[in-house]
């Protein structure tokens, strides 16, 4: 569908329009009384979100992000599905699943009474997805752009057998200086340390998380309320999660950042990923015909 046709069918005068963005990628631009946001139907990914009164974007988006068909884009909130992390069956399939690299279909764009804007996108199995992963599914993402940003992922099993998935909202938060932030809410939680290659050993988090080396951890049994305190941008990002007891915290630090072609050399200072996930021991089994959800609400508060 071309941009004019999309604007005619789904555009909302003065609030929501479709535009050609970086490298010609289709973008949905939202500007309502409460916030501005950019979403791309490729991967159902939120790329930008800024509440009206806030000076800075909530999210980091890499200047080196691929914006090439079939490749993932680093930044915003990529959706990892139907597996989070490496291929669970060791077949060499892409990290974090395949759904973040595919175009999704637009279902609904609407204004709600409180002034927020609701966008609903979806993707269903087809020949191409079944060649990678054989199961019949329907996946939807609901994005609410208001004074907070709310993202909810709904997975439906369209098959006759139970469907096992892991998944995640791989949120990249913009920070003033990663070496000066504190991630709060995970104190006392046990984590698997992927950066240290310590296998499945669980380590107990002592105090707030700070970044002074590569951080790549899977926290288990986490509370539903987390926060990132950022003295440089003078703000606190609040993350309220739904249907997730697992959280991945990732910052690549200097060497890994340099090795990644889709990050600039200094980008490790510009973001922290605090990801709302189901992974490790939190595998989700969806019975035939049933749904599973995962979601998060993000808010920005001044310090
Ligand atoms: O480069 P990507 O496939 O998007 O993954 C980026 C990162 O995502 C997660 O946070 C993982 O824990 C990291 O190991 C990985 O490097």
From TrEMBL:
Keyword flag Isomerase: yes
Enzyme Commission number(s): 5.1.3.15
Stored InterPro entries: Aldose_1/G6P_1-epimerase, G6P_1-epimerase, Gal_mutarotase_sf_dom, GH-type_carb-bd
Keywords per UniProt: Isomerase
CDD domains for this protein: D-hex-6-P-epi_like
Catalytic reactions on record: alpha-D-glucose 6-phosphate = beta-D-glucose 6-phosphate
One Pfam family named in its UniProt record: Aldose_epim
Superkingdom of the organism of origin: Bacteria
Catalytic class of the enzyme: isomerase
GO molecular function: carbohydrate binding; glucose-6-phosphate 1-epimerase activity
Active site positions: 170, 275
GO biological process terms on file: carbohydrate metabolic process
Family assignment from sequence similarity: Belongs to the glucose-6-phosphate 1-epimerase family.
Protein name according to UniProt: Putative glucose-6-phosphate 1-epimerase
